[in-house]
Specification:
Its main location: membrane. With 359 residues, this protein is an alpha+beta fold. Helices cover 26% and strands 15% of the residues. Among the domains are: 45 residues, no CATH class; 199 residues, Umud Fragment, subunit A, CATH 2.10.109.10. The protein has 6 helices and 12 strands. Strands 1, 2, 3, 4, 9, 10, 11 and 12 form an 8-stranded antiparallel sheet that branches. Strands 7-6-5-8 form a 4-stranded antiparallel sheet, with no helix packed on it. It is extended, with a radius of gyration of 49 Å.
Length: 359
């Protein structure tokens, strides 16, 4: 139906009359270009649903309300919006779900065991004192930490150190039979492998190094112990003990690459003195030394650093062992050089002397 022409005489508004005359155009506000209205906005041809253009305010029409009002429960979906973003907004801010502690526990235990094995093999290992042979420096039941790192770099035992070493053969009785319980035996082997308890298969001892390769160690009567002709002052010996036992005098030349060891509790220690009839003459090969005990770690009340006593650094104690041979070798090597230099100086001085005589 064609819109009715307004009658100016009636006093009506042309726009209002046009709206009321043609209800098929749409139900909305006339002439404002809002969505859902078929009336073209002023100056915007073809606006509205019939013309296919924009309304007068330039805002695209959106179903269900005023321009800019959210559509649906979450807001307008623009052309660059990903529908998955709506799902991400509902997730926790910290991202993915955290792993359960009980799922991570086996991994943590595995890492701890690997670290313990590496430390025990290459760095430090704890040993328990099994006897009274090192009283009062070490008491039965003490735990000491043994340095296993320096031997990897070629370090060898030195006089005065407290060292742990494997039984060279015949020093200790045979080990007791392992437990008949399979579970207990397996648990013991596993814990000893990673260093958390002593091994039932290894036979280790702990003593103090008195002499090293090249030294001459001797003792008669009650002492003192002599190393390369120098008497040792040993304040670490158990109170009431003597440096030597009169019934076991000895004089030994320590072979190269071996050590002579004695316990600090001299009258209660089956050390090198009592194994002179065995291969090695009571000495221990350096290759059997596990490492140097550096500290008493347990119990806490017994904590102490195992330092080297000053008596082992007294002047002249190295004369026979390590100083005489290198000095002789150095002299022998320097002699040809001195002779060559002297001959060269004489050859240069000869012509000068002759020319002086000619004058």
């Amino acid at each position: 139906m064609a819109p009715a022409k307004p009658d100016p005489a009636a006093g009506g508004s042309p726009a209002k009359d046009a709206w009321e005359a043609d209800p098929a155009v749409g139900s909305g506000l006339p002439g404002n270009g809002l969505p859902g209205h078929g009336v073209p906005g002023p100056g915007v041809p073809g606006s509205g649903p019939q013309g296919g253009g924009l309304p007068a305010n330039g805002i695209p029409a959106m179903a269900g309300g005023v321009p800019g009002e959210p559509v649906g429960p979450v807001g307008p979906a623009g052309p660059g919006r990903d529908p998955d973003d709506d799902e991400d907004e509902g997730r926790p801010a910290h991202g993915r779900k955290q792993r359960s502690f009980w799922k991570e526990l086996p991994l943590l235990i595995g890492i701890a065991l690997v670290l313990a094995l590496l430390i025990k093999t290459f760095l430090v290992q704890a040993f328990s004192i099994p006897s009274d042979s090192m009283n009062n420096t070490l008491l039965k039941g003490d735990r000491v930490l043994v340095d296993k790192l320096t031997p990897w770099f070629g370090s060898t035992p030195t006089r005065g150190e407290v060292v742990v070493f494997h039984d060279p053969g015949g020093w200790l009785p045979e080990n007791p039979s392992p437990s008949s319980n399979v579970v207990v035996r397996g648990l013991q082997k596993g814990l000893s492998f990673i260093g958390l308890m002593p091994s039932a298969d290894e036979k280790d001892l702990i003593k103090r190094v008195i002499g090293v390769g090249g030294d001459t160690v001797s003792c008669k009567g009650t002492g003192p112990v002599m190393v390369n002709g120098k008497a040792l002052d040993e304040p670490y010996i158990f109170p009431g003990n003597t440096a030597c036992s009169p019934e076991v005098p000895f004089t030994v030349h320590v072979p190269k690459g071996r050590i002579w060891v004695m316990g600090d509790h001299r009258q209660d220690s089956l050390d090198s003195r009592f194994h002179t009839t065995l291969p090695g003459g009571g000495t221990v090969p350096n290759s059997d030394v596990v490492g140097r005990a550096v500290v008493v770690a347990w119990p806490v009340t017994r904590w102490d650093v195992l330092s080297i006593p000053g008596t082992f650094s007294q002047p002249g104690i190295n004369a026979a062992a390590g100083t005489a041979v290198p000095a002789a070798a150095g002299l022998a090597g320097a002699l040809p050089l001195v002779m060559w230099r002297r001959r060269r100086l004489l050859s240069k001085a000869g012509p000068v002397q002759e020319s002086a005589e000619d004058c």
